[in-house]
Amino acid sequence: MKVLLPLLLGVLCSLPVIAHIEVTPFPKVVQGGVPLAGLTSTDPHGMIVYRVVVPEGTARLTVTTNGGTGNLELYLRKSVHPSYGGADADFDSRFPGTRQRLQVEAPSAGVWFIGLQGANGGYNGVKMVAVTKQAKGAVAAAVLNPPPGIYPGATTCTLKAKGATVRYTLDGSDPTASSPVAPASLSITSDTTVKARSFSSKGVVGPVVEGFYQIHPAGEVRDLDSLGVIHHLGSAKGGRHLFRVPVAAGQRLSVVAEGGKGKSTISVRHGSIPPTGKPAKGDTSFIRGTTRVVIPETTAGDYFLAVDAATAYSGRTVMALVAGDGADLTPWALTLEPYTSTETFDPASCEVQEGMIDAGERRLLRYTTEIRNIGGFDMVMPDPEGNPFFEFQECHGHYHFKGFAASRLLDLEGNELRSGRKVSFCLLDTNRWDRGANSRTRFNCSKQGIQAGWGDAYDSGLPGQWIEIDTLPAGDYQLELTVNPDGILAETNYENNTVVIPVTIPAED
């Protein structure tokens, strides 16, 4: 018998109870050279964390804040969130006012985290910008356009790099100086792995860029299970992806297309493929929308979905969500974005004290966890006080739901090689992924839960977002993430609680 409980996803950094580091939902991202303006502290002593990705071949990373009013401190740390007070930050700037500046020469490539902490009353209206400067002589990485993904029929792509010659392969090998030069356009007519590398006129070599293009015949109808999700759809203008979804009577079917670039439309029809274009006036045989179509009460049988390219598009995710009479949690594969990191943990740190990891130097595979409630009802958590499924953690000053997420690293045959410790969580609304959902947040760490159509995202730099990989050799593996692994929380569907993605472990530095 399943017990209806809610969970807590609170993997925050060590800090005194009087302070609070804001849970960082996934897209608090700083793009290189693009300012973020109007930044304001809602807590005079709180800290908000942002992420910036430093590309290969970067000579300098510079982060500055200015403008507005008040006082703040600026922290910068590679791979991990800086904790409150910045004691573990790799770089910090603590001058009075909002004018702060950090400069890192030859920063290592990968994810860096920026912490803005209010001081002496907080701050308001601040602008922040992170700028990366390419190293002299470095070669830009090749760009595949359109990006890799799933396409309806043959597609044509270009492989280019500014100021460099691009060479490519289609046999899985890394391009060398003797590989063929990329043509003006490359026709892809079947499933193909493209590898590209840029070469400068002075013999400097860029990184290998790899992409997999999956080609389905034009007009093919593919089965999409109820509550099914397909990522990385793409198409040239006028192209069409077709899917069939079996649905029982009296359900609520929502079809959502999100993410990526370009424009597409959705058409949904019961029993047969919907025609192209808008429905004629008075035609109720099918429904058409841009990003979302809802059938409030379904007729039993097959519904056919068409995703039509109004312009060329790529990177789109399509979901067919059948709402039952309860909540339904699922991890979101696209935001995992795993990477490796070598870190040293102090015995007094919250991570060690709470049993997340042992003290000392550890090599980790870090990842971001996003949990979405794709059901028709909110996941509402009970009062944690006195509840045996919750624990109060002194380092964080609030309750966590025990063992909400579990992860494993598998080989390509599915055999377990490493496992992550089950992580406690504080469940709350961070991102409204369904535009038809309630527009206001309802749940937080004081009143836990996730609304229908909302998700809760925890960034890779937070404690517990890892699997220890220690001396695991470089190679190709699979990362598995499961939410509600013990089935304690009541859901309408437990079959979608696990996602598995490919991951490559690089050689140790």
For the structure shown, list the relevant keywords.
509 residues; mainly beta; Jelly Rolls; five-stranded mixed sheet; 1 helix; disordered N terminus
Overview of the structural elements:
With 509 residues, the chain is mainly β. The protein folds into four domains: 36-134, Jelly Rolls (Sandwich), CATH 2.60.120.380; 154-216; 221-323, Jelly Rolls; 329-505, no CATH class. The protein has one helix and 39 strands. The longest helix has 4 residues, at 350-353.
Summarize the structure.
InterPro entries: GH29D-like_dom, LOX-like_protein, Lysyl_oxidase, Peptidase_C_arc/bac. This protein has 509 residues and is an all-beta fold. It has one helix and 39 strands.
Number of extended strands: 39
Total separate domains: 4
Tell me, rounded to a whole number, the average pLDDT. 87
Beta-strand residue percentage: over 45%
Distance between the termini: 49 Å
Uncertain segments are 1-27
Overall SS class: mainly beta
- Output the radius of gyration: 24 Å
DSSP summary: helix tally: 1
**Shape call:** globular
Biggest beta sheet summary? 6 strands, antiparallel
- Helicity range: under 10%
How would you classify the quaternary structure? single chain
Signal peptide: 1-19
Keywords: Signal
Domain GH29D-like beta-sandwich: 146-209
Protein name: Lysyl oxidase family protein
